[in-house]
Sequence to fold (575 residues):
Amino acid sequence: MNVLAIDATTYASGVALARDGQVMAERTTILKKNHSLRLMPAVEELMNEVGMSPAELDRIVVAKGPGSYTGVRIAVGTAKSLAWSLGIPIVGVSSLETLAANAKLFPGWICPFFDARRGQVYTGLYHGGAALQSIEADQIVLMEEFARRLKERDGSVFFLSPDVLKHQEVIRDVLGERALFADEANLFMRPAELVRLGMEREPEVDTHAFAPAYVQLAEAEKKWLASQAGADDE
Amino acid sequence: MAKTSSSAWKTILAIETSCDETAAAIVHAGTEVWSNVVASQIESHKRFGGVVPEIASRHHVEQMTMVMEEALREADVTWEDVDAVAVTEGPGLVGALLVGVNAAKAAAFACGLPLIPVHHIAGHIYANQLIEPIQYPALALIVSGGHTELVYAAEEGSFEIIGETRDDAVGEAYDKVARTLGLPYPGGPAVDKLAAEGEASIDMPRAWLEQGSYDFSFSGLKSAVINKLHNASQKGETLEAADVAASFQGSVIDVLVTKTVAAAREYEVEHVLVAGGVAANRGLRAEVERAMGEEGLKLTIPPLKYCTDNAAMIGAAAYVAGKEGRQADMALNANPSLPLY
Ligand SMILES: [Zn+2]
Fold:
């Protein structure tokens, strides 16, 4: 299977290309620059380097979020347009699961997260070892609250995040020595992991209807719903 | 498969996502519209009283490929028949533009087609070409929720903005006045309809600005409407909403038409074009037609489907850009404040 995987969840931008199921090339840039300038040029470069034409692709894999709304939208929009115009399947993989896969051999709790402002994070809970298992679904939650919930479980928790510095103190306050932190080489998603995860699962049934996993409503929608609830109370 | 000769770029798949319409079209040779598909989000934004950028972007990414597929299907063509992909590069809402730009880049790359970037306002101007050939020199009045501009076009492919709004776009002023009068969003059609039932009997200011200026300003007029309503209610009087609407609209149209006529005379143009969503306004259409008739000037106002945001107009503009060899690479980005080229 020839697979192209793309990610623009955080300010890192990642692309990987597999031929016959083998990853041939992988490219990640960790620059705070616009994804629109970098993502498709990276795809074009990688495909040229590997010597594969778009028509040879069998599947597009994309990190579907949660994460930066704009970044995820660029990746998902690009992936949908590629898959649809080539007439090939698309697979969406959780950005958090992809990040957790960096620590899949760790035989304990794995907590990948992205900062979501005001003390909140996009996170989920995974367990590693023989295989990566999803324990708690992707969500947006206060880091402090999530850490307290983790405290009720036994054993160490392995945290991976490009935004680790913003939340390390809160995590340490709650979990103390039970909190382990990934080293710098593992703070970002690996496009090769995205390829692997995307090959393992069933494609989306409807490419057109496939949408990013934002995990939360847009701000205006939240306010509108709150105002409706208020009006009902009166 | 990649075509290199720009003269071959005849059949264009065009994409437009600069605000709240997800649109795709197939346009042949810049004038024949083979399909023109628009997925409007008006219903979704109505409850917020205006376009919410994040919601618009979310809709675009959900609708984009479906709208592109529909455009191919309605035109009864396949990718084999398409010579180029065109897309609105700007101006507009950045998040909304990004969805179209990236969808266009991905499709062009996948199908080995050239990619043509288009300026949204150039699209509105060339929408007239879908009706009849533009005669140069021409003057275009672009009026919409995001734009109020007078553009002088000396010849094909050359634009100069000679006047623009210094505050609100005319469509924005309509939305705000509609809200003040308790009318629904979008305000343009609602105010236009109500104005037809009233008399322009209330004195409203007209912002002429400096002598000879073709710029516009509508914020003072909007405030005047609010103040008149407020003052009347303080005195225990009520103003007829229809008269307020007619007086407001009378001021807007007077300024738009007077400045358009003055510019048409100064620049000695052959052809006056009106474009943008507010060009659907019946009061404006009637007054522009009257004034241009008096001046003996050729006037084109496209039908509604080509006035409001659509992709056929982007296809029309892309054909001209393609003839000039304008082409983008995979690093094309959305530019929310793209200058007119
Ligand atoms: Zn427009």
Summary: Chain B has two domains: 6-126+307-323, 136-301. The pocket of zinc ion is lined by residues B 120, 124, 144, 276, 309 (CB under 6 Å). The beta strands of chain B are 11-16, 21-28, 32-40, 84-90, 115-119, 138-143, 148-153, 160-164, 271-275, 298-300. The radius of gyration of chain B is 20 Å.
